[in-house]
Each structure stands twice: as C-alpha cells, then as structure tokens.
Amino acid sequence: MGVPRDATEAQIKQAYRKLARKFHPDVSKEKDAEARFKDLGEAYEVLKTPEKRAAYDQLGQNYRAGENFRPPPDWDAGFEFSGPGGGAGTGAGGSSGFGGAGGAGSDYSDFFASLFGAAGARSKRSRGAAASDRGEDHHAKVLLDLEATLMGGARTLTLRVPGIDSTGHLMSKERTLSVQIPKGILAGQHIRLAKQGEAAAGSGEPGDLFIEVEFQPHALYRVDSRDLYLTLPVAPWEAALGATVKTPTPLGPVDLRIPPGSHAGTKLRLKTRGIPANPPGDLYVVLDIALPPANDEKSKAAYQAMASALAFNPRTGLGV
Questions:
Q1: pTM
Q2: 3-state SS track over 124-149
Q3: Of 142, 285, 133, 291, nearest in space to 203 by CA
Q4: Gap between the Cα atoms of 73 and 187, Å rounded
Q5: Bridge partners, 157 (sequence order)
Q6: Which residues pair with 162 in a beta bridge?
Q7: I need a labelling partner for 259 at 20 to 30 A (CA). Which of 66, 86, 180, 306 fits?
Q8: Which CATH architecture has domain 1-48?
C-alpha cells in the first residue's frame, strides 16, 4: 500500500481509498486491476486491525513473494487476540476470527492464511445474536514449562495486547495475570478465564479469555499427548549383558532393569509415570548406546581386544 511501517490509522485508510479508486475493476484500465484490487483489499484488512497488523509486523518482514511461507511454531505465543474462534485443540469450535480480505469475502492468500490460521480462532465458543450485548471473547496461546502440568498450581502469565494509541499508531501493552494451571492439562487444551475478555459496550457482562496451552521444550522429556519420552544413555555392556540402572522420572529417579540383548532404540515402558491426566500417561525410556572414548592406551587396548574377540560386522545385510 506504500505506507511506512509506523503509519497511522488515518494514513492507512487514506492510502487504501486512493488505491481502491485507482484499481477498482469497474473503472480501472490497468491490465491487472482485478488482482491488484484483491491484493489491496487483503493488505487493508490486515493493516486496519491492530492484532493482524502486529502479527504481520512480527513475521511479514521474513516473507518474500512466491515463497512457500510457514510461520515458525508458536510464533504467536504471548499475544492476546480478540474475536470468536474455533481452531485446533480441545474445546475449540466455531469459525476463524479473521474474515475475507477487504470485506469482500474472498480468501486470504497462502501467506496470510498460514499466518492468521495460526494466530486466530482460539476462543472456545462463538456467540450468536442473543449474546450480542456481551463483551467479545479474547484468546491467547502460552508456553508453559512441563512442570506446570506435572504439578499444577498458579503461574504468572504476561500477555501482549495490540492496540492503537491516541495518535493512531500501533502499540502493544502488557497484561499480567495469575492463572491456576490444572494438573494434567494437555497441549492444545484451553483454560477459560471468565469475564477476562473484552468489556461490553453497554451494561452487558465482559467476554471470556481462553488460554491455549503449549509446552516449552524440556531438557529431558519429549511430550506426546499424555505420554513422555526420555532418551537414556547406557553402556554397551549394560545393553548386551543386562543391568539395573538409575533413570530419572518426573517424580524422581527409579531403578530400571535393562534386559540382556538390548540395542539402541529399545523402548521400555514405565506405566502411569507420564502426565497425570485421566487416565495418566506413560513414560517411555528409549535406550541410546553410549560408547566410551578411546583416548588413552588402556582404552585403545580394550577396544582392540574386543575387535579380536568378537566376529562382529555392523554392516551385515548391506551387501558390502
């Protein structure tokens, strides 16, 4: 649209009206007027809305026309958006909070669809005309540490809320909330904070705020629904001969029996030691063979003795 990144609402609207007159298919003689008009409508739909504009400002600079753009995972975590919704995740329903470009009902381009498909539609419900006097629901995604679901309890969350200041410029204010995290909550599920959404215009009650939960990467565990996965290094002789070793679990270390003849990738299941959901998840321990370093004469001799004693070819079956 030819406006600077810090353009005001009024400047954006003025630029849109000027270009819309120039490229309207009914009056324009430009060969690509229809396509330009559609692109213009899409751009205006994004830039006129504080939340969409904030999303574009964060990621749009990384986009180049013609690229197959995919937003990085959880890029929108910590943003609070408004609007009815219904995206992926437990309890979501309804339709996206982002409509067609320029009010024309047309679909977004692949770039904006990928961007706003991730950012929008996290509200647990959409309201009909009967609730039109109620404040709008808000939604946000937050990244929690795994201990939040393992233990439950209160967490302090800080959300960024895009808006327009008194001069018409885009701004972002922070909102801090104390939220009770239910023990056993899973990634993709929502926490409803009643009346923490947008205030009603009249005497109606405020909307709700729906928090979608995702987990930060953990140093030890990988999360898969309610199950946890842990990669456990073991020595070659522990895998080959069997052993009982200490392994971490979310509730503290336990003794784990390694069966004789185990190999890299062997998966051992510890029942109910995953996320404490209903039913609880399991902890899967995946073995990884750790080789001792051959960094002195004694260790080198041990490897040479093992090579002489064992008729072992790890490439058997490869035809070489």
A1: 0.68
A2: CCCCCHHHCCCCCCEEEEEEECHHHH
A3: 133
A4: 13
A5: 177
A6: 172
A7: 306
A8: Orthogonal Bundle (1.10)
For 74-215, give the CATH class: mainly beta
In tens digits, the chain (320 residues) has pLDDT values of 677 777 777 777 877 787 777 777 777 777 788 777 877 777 777 677 766 767 677 666 555 554 555 666 666 677 777 754 333 333 332 222 223 333 333 455 555 555 555 444 433 344 444 456 888 888 888 999 999 999 999 999 999 887 777 777 767 788 999 999 999 999 999 999 999 988 888 788 999 999 999 999 999 999 999 999 999 999 999 999 999 999 999 989 999 999 999 999 999 999 999 999 889 999 999 999 999 999 999 999 999 999 999 988 888 888 77
- Determine how β-strand 190-193 pairs with β-strand 267-270: unpaired
Contacts of 113 (CB under 8 A, 6+ apart): 107
Q: Tell me if 1-48 shares its fold with 221-304.
A: no
> Residue 80 and residue 197: Cα distance in Å, rounded?
10
